Each structure stands twice: as C-alpha cells, then as structure tokens.
Amino acid sequence: MITASLIIWLATAVGLGFATLLVSGIKAKNFIAFLIAAAALGLINAFIRPALWLLTAPLSVVTFGLFTLVINAFMIMLAAALVPGFEVKSFGSAFFGAIIMAIIGAIGFIAVPLLTGADINWYSYEYHSETQHY
Predict the structure, then answer these.
(1) Which of 21, 46, 89, 133 is the most exposed place for a label (fewest CB within 10 A)?
(2) Which residues of 86-106 are buried (b: 16+ CB within 10 A; e: fewer)?
(3) Per-residue pLDDT of the chain (134 residues; tens, 9 = 90+)
(4) Model's pTM, two decimal places?
(5) Distance CA 4, CA 109 (A)
(6) Which of 28, 39, 102, 22 is closest to 68 using CA atoms?
(7) Of 70, 83, 72, 75, whose CA–CA distance to 37 is shortest?
(8) Which residues sit opposite 88 in a β-bridge?
(9) How many whole angstroms separate alpha carbon 120 and alpha carbon 126?
C-alpha cells in the first residue's frame, strides 16, 4: 500500500515537473519549492479532491469526465497559493498543467500494478477469489 502511494506521488511529482517545464505559466523558484509543491498537491489530492469530486459528480457526468480537469486545475492553483516559491499565473496555465499531469498520472496508474505485482485482470481476480477455500 505504501509502495503504491509512493509510486502515485512520484507520478504526481513527475507530472508536475513536466508541467513546470512545458507550461510557461507554472514556475517553481527552486527544487525545494517544487518538492514541497508536489507534496502539498499530493495531500490536497488525497483529502480535498475526493470531496470536490463527490460534490461535482453530476457535472462530471454531464461533461463525460472532462470537468475533473477543471477540479485538478483548481487543485494546482490551491497548491500554488499554499506553497511559497511555486506560482501559477492563470487558470489556463493550471488547466494545461492539469492535462499534462493527467497524462502522466494515467501512466503512473498503469505502472502501479505492473511494478507492485498487483493483479489488474478482473477475470483473474474473479477466478482466484472463487478458487480460494476458507
């Protein structure tokens, strides 16, 4: 469980790193500010984002999930507001950063089962759970 959380945080940090490199409106003054921003974003994503997803679920359904990018952009802007040395100039910059982070996060989400040895095949999960005898 801790390994999976660490891999997901690493994917978030890598995504944030790519966002700072590719989006001109997202800047970290130094590496320490970047690491603190990645940690803050991880905590925000763990505690605040689930509540926002629940509250905006109908809007996410109507937009076929694209509204989650708006939520992620707001989470990036919140991290920038909380962390000195990490700044986001506009909502557009945060939105493009959210797109980049979503792509990197999807890669990380796929990598977690591959790197931890978890089973990602539902048929295999059902087969193994049916063959276990207690």
Answers:
(1) 133
(2) bbbeeeebbbbbbbbbeebbe
(3) 677 677 777 878 899 999 999 999 999 999 999 999 999 998 898 888 889 888 999 998 999 989 999 999 999 999 999 999 999 999 999 999 999 998 887 877 777 777 777 665 545 444 444 555 55
(4) 0.78
(5) 9
(6) 102
(7) 83
(8) 26
(9) 11
Please tell me the total number of residues recorded for the chain in this structure.
134
- Can you name the residues that pair with 28 across neighbouring β-strands? 86
- Look-up: residue for tokens 């919140």? 78
User: Are the C-beta atoms of residues 20 and 28 closer than 8 Å to each other?
Assistant: yes
Handedness of CA 52, 57, 59, 62 (dihedral sign): positive
> Residue holding tokens 């977690």?
112
